[in-house]
Amino acid sequence: MEKTVLDMKNGEKAEVAAIEGGCMLGMRLEALGIRSGKQVTRISRQLLGGPVIVAIDGRQTALGRGTASKIRVVPLHC
Q1: Integer Cα distance of 7 and 60 in angstroms
Q2: Which residues contact residue 60 at a Cβ distance below 8 angstroms, ignoring those fewer than 6 apart?
Q3: What is the pTM of this model?
């Protein structure tokens, strides 16, 4: 069942399935290490429209809600 990074719960881990955006968004996320097949963990989501904090490859990154809603993921069940 695919969902977006924005829909994930805090602490949930998932594998990136696809990025729904243009070439520039894909290149920007690639530079952050976010690409298909990578594991991502949602750390937190700030209140009142703030960023979504994710961890990937041991680094935390803040993503805007619009960007987080374009990253499709498949939840990992441990």
Answers
A1: 18
A2: 43, 53, 54
A3: 0.90
| Host domain of residue 17 | 3-75
Q: Mapping DSSP to helix (H, G, I), strand (E, B) and coil, where does residue 59 land?
A: strand
Strands of 52-56's sheet in order across: 3-4, 71-75, 13-19, 39-45, 52-56, 59-63
Residue closest to 70 by CA, chosen among 31, 23, 12: 23
CA distance 10 to 64: 16
The number of distinct structural domains making up the chain is 1
Question: Which residues on adjacent β-strands are paired with residue 45?
Answer: 52
CATH number of 10's domain: 2.30.30.90
In this predicted model, what pLDDT tens digit does every residue of 8-43 receive, in sequence order? 999 999 999 999 989 999 999 999 999 999 999 999
